[in-house]
């Protein structure tokens, strides 16, 4: 095609250089200093503020990362993570930063960086102190009063049967007067059941002794069951005032959580009744008003709230569920992920990530 070999080499060299330059420019297109538009969404302590006046764990990690890479960027705030991800999917953003959970559903539509924080779901409930009335209230419950009534009715039956068997042979112990006779019979039944055995009353007839002996056996079972029932009543009453320690205690109970968060699905899977709210403050408010039994949400956000508000009447359970990582989200075709992951590794190796997180969260908690 070309008569001069040198001309051919020169032309092909120029074409190769152009192709390489075009490829390099395409790969770095989204790294252009004027093109990085960063969506910001999420809650404290990962995201604070709006517009360019934002801060928080996610924002500081991104700022350190971008400084290492020499990138310039522009923040755009969103009310919710879902809104930001929708804009990302529509091509309006280069990436989204914040406490974005990396889930199997989301990876179908987005690419994610490696996690910069490993989170989990936690439970916060009221830790109420029992007053004097709370401690004695179980003794006035309907169930306990019914049990006492049944006990007295049975004692009356036993006392009557003993009186009928003994009244003609032991009138000094069981007089003919029904009130005195049945009363003495009930007294004998009580001291027999309690194994006190004062000896002031005792059957003298064979029938009376058979009745008393049978009552001894029956009363052992009856007394044991009654004591166990009273203990159960007191225990359940005490549990009603105790903080929630695991998800099993929230079955069929109203539980506040942030709308469209992974915690909502988690509650439904464990047969709790999610009460959707838009902010953590609203969820805690419902908990204080006793409109819900607990609040279930991401552990770091709950820790941060308790740390800053000093709520001694709120308790966070040690149990952790739905462990998942927080990362940055990118479009499926984005070529930023590799550079971001490498920078995140460098930050982790230099302990910069831990230092940022420690400033916001008490790590020992």
Give the topology, please.
Layout: H1 5-27, E1 37-40, E2 48-50, E3 53-55, H2 57-69, E4 74-77, H3 81-89, E5 95-101, E6 110-112, E7 117-126, H4 132-136, H5 142-166, H6 178-193, H7 206-241, E8 254-258, H8 262-269, E9 273-277, H9 280-288, E10 294-298, H10 299-309, E11 314-316, E12 321-331, H11 337-349, H12 352-360
Parallel strand pairs: 1-4, 1-5, 8-9, 8-10
Antiparallel strand pairs: 2-3, 5-12, 6-12, 7-10, 7-11, 7-12
Description:
This protein has 3 domains: 5-117 and 327-360, D-Maltodextrin-Binding Protein, domain 2 (3-Layer(aba) Sandwich), CATH 3.40.190; 133-241, Helix Hairpins, CATH 1.10.287.70; 244-322, 3-Layer(aba) Sandwich (D-Maltodextrin-Binding Protein, domain 2). It has helices at 5-27, 57-69, 81-89, 132-136, 142-166, 178-193, 206-241, 262-269, 280-288, 299-309, 337-349, 352-360, and strands spanning 37-40, 48-50, 53-55, 74-77, 95-101, 110-112, 117-126, 254-258, 273-277, 294-298, 314-316, 321-331. Helix 5 (142-166) packs antiparallel against helix 7. The strands form 2 sheets. Strands 1, 4, 5, 6, 7, 8, 9, 10, 11 and 12 form a 10-stranded mixed β-sheet that branches. The chain is built from 12 helices and 12 strands. It has 365 residues and is an alpha/beta fold. Strand 2 (48-50) and strand 3 form a beta hairpin. The radius of gyration is 37 Å and the shape is rod-shaped. Pfam families: Lig_chan, SBP_bac_3. Its main location: membrane. It is a multi-pass membrane protein. It is found in: Membrane. Residues 35-363 form the Ionotropic glutamate receptor C-terminal domain.
């Amino acid at each position: 095609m070309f008569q001069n070999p040198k001309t051919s080499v020169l032309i092909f060299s120029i074409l190769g250089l152009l192709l390489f330059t075009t490829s390099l420019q395409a790969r770095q297109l989204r790294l252009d200093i004027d093109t990085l538009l960063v969506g910001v969404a999420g809650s404290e302590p990962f995201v604070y503020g709006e517009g360019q006046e934002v801060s928080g764990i996610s924002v500081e990690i991104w700022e350190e990362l971008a400084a290492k890479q020499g990138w310039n960027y522009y923040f755009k705030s969103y009310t919710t993570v879902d809104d930001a991800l929708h804009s990302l999917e529509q091509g309006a953003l280069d990436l989204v930063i914040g406490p974005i959970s990396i889930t199997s559903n989301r990876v179908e539509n987005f690419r994610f960086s490696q996690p910069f924080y490993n989170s989990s779901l936690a439970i916060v409930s009221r830790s109420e102190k029992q007053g004097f009335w709370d401690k004695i209230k179980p003794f006035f419950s309907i169930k306990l009063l019914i049990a006492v009534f049944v006990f007295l009715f049975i004692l009356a039956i036993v006392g009557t049967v003993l009186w009928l068997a003994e009244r003609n042979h032991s009138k000094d112990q069981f007089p003919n007067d029904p009130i005195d006779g049945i009363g003495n019979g009930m007294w004998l039944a009580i001291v027999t059941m309690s194994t006190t055995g004062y000896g002031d009353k005792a059957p003298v007839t064979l029938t009376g002794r058979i009745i008393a002996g049978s009552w001894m056996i029956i009363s052992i079972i009856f007394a044991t069951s009654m004591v166990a029932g009273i203990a159960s009543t007191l225990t359940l009453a005490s549990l009603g005032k105790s903080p929630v320690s695991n998800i099993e205690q929230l079955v069929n109970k109203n539980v506040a959580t942030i709308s469209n968060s992974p915690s909502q699905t988690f509650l439904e899977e464990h047969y709790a009744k999610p009460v959707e709210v838009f902010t953590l403050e609203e969820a805690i408010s419902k908990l204080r008003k006793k409109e819900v039994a607990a609040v279930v949400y991401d552990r770091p956000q709950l820790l941060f709230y308790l740390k800053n508000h000093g709520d001694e009447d709120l308790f966070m359970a040690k149990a952790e569920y739905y462990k998942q990582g927080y990362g940055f989200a990118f479009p499926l075709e984005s070529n930023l992920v590799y550079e971001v992951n490498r920078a995140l590794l460098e930050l982790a190796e230099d302990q910069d990530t831990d230092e940022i997180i420690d400033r916001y969260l008490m790590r020992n908690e």
